[in-house]
Write a structure and sequence with these properties.
CATH superfamily of one domain: Type I PLP-dependent aspartate aminotransferase-like (Major domain)
Structural class: alpha/beta
Low-confidence stretches: none
Strand order of the largest sheet: 5-4-3-6-7
Keywords: Aminotransferase, Pyridoxal phosphate, Transferase
CATH class of one domain: Alpha Beta
GO biological process, one term: alpha-amino acid metabolic process
Family: Belongs to the class-I pyridoxal-phosphate-dependent aminotransferase family.
InterPro entries: Aminotransferase_I/II_large, Class-I_PLP-dep_aminotransf, PyrdxlP-dep_Trfase, PyrdxlP-dep_Trfase_major
Order of helices and strands: HEEHHHEHEEHEHE
Protein name: Aminotransferase class I/classII large domain-containing protein
Radius of gyration: 22 Å
Helix content: 25-40%
Mean pLDDT: 91
CATH topology of one domain: Aspartate Aminotransferase, domain 2
Number of helices: 7
Length: about 240
């Protein structure tokens, strides 16, 4: 089955917070692509000469992901151009080679190909990316839908924006669509409806719940009916 096509970028404009609407690309980073021009010596971003970096290589050793007994180890060494790229200032979206790897992973796992109206950006861990997503979608004082019980790690993010958190009930199979529907259909007309539903559908903290495909489809259908963005904290 082919993956659903991404909606055009203009569809999401109404979901953006005032802060997100005011953001502009960095004038310095916007010129980074020009540095790839052969023979160009760039003085653009004050990048240090790679020969001055103190590290010459990094060796990482881990258990083999295919060995459940953890008796086999895998060693990877990073050096040369790869290491220099990792230690240098880079594009806002993340290390290009890593971004390309994630594009490939999304195509393999979700059937979403690069260039189909969506993009990848790399952050400094899940908490960092979730906060950036929340602040890009929700204005201070607005309401947000969250599953109950809620992963406590995201509370400070919503609290910093003085969000009105509206809890949606869950059970061992995921969000109860009946609870979500009741909340949305009984929402006061005088109050703006939430634009975002935050959920952890796989291995939810603190319950350990993993949402069934049926429940996820029910939630997706309600999101379509009520114009919601589903923000998931999950494995790729």
């Amino acid at each position: 089955m082919a993956a659903p096509r991404a909606l055009p970028a203009k569809f999401y404009q109404s979901f953006l917070s005032n802060l997100a609407r005011e953001r502009k690309p960095s004038p310095i980073r916007g010129l980074y692509p020009l540095e790839a021009k052969p023979g160009l010596i760039s003085l653009l971003a004050g990048k240090p000469n790679a020969s001055t970096f103190p590290l010459t290589s990094i060796t990482l050793t881990s258990h083999s992901p295919t060995d459940s007994g953890k008796t086999t180890q895998v060693t990877t060494e990073i050096g040369g151009k790869e290491l220099a790229e990792g230690l240098q200032y880079g594009p806002t979206a993340g290390l290009p080679s890593m971004v390309e790897w994630v594009y490939g992973l999304q195509e393999k796992v979700h059937g979403r190909k690069k260039g189909e109206g969506w993009k990848v950006t790399i952050g400094g861990g899940s908490q960092d990316v979730i906060y950036k997503a929340v602040s890009a979608l929700i204005n201070p004082g607005e309401s947000a839908l969250v599953e109950s019980p809620l992963y406590a790690g995201v509370l400070p993010m919503f609290q910093a924006l003085h969000c009105d958190l509206v809890e949606v009930q869950t059970d061992a199979s995921g969000i109860l669509s009946s609870s979500l529907r009741k909340t949305l259909e009984s929402w006061p007309e005088s109050k703006p409806k939430p634009k975002v539903l935050y959920t952890v559908p796989y291995g939810c903290n603190p319950t350990g719940m993993t949402a069934t495909i049926e429940r996820r489809r029910e939630v997706l259908q309600l999101a379509r009916e009520h114009n919601l963005i589903i923000l998931e904290g999950m494995l790729p």
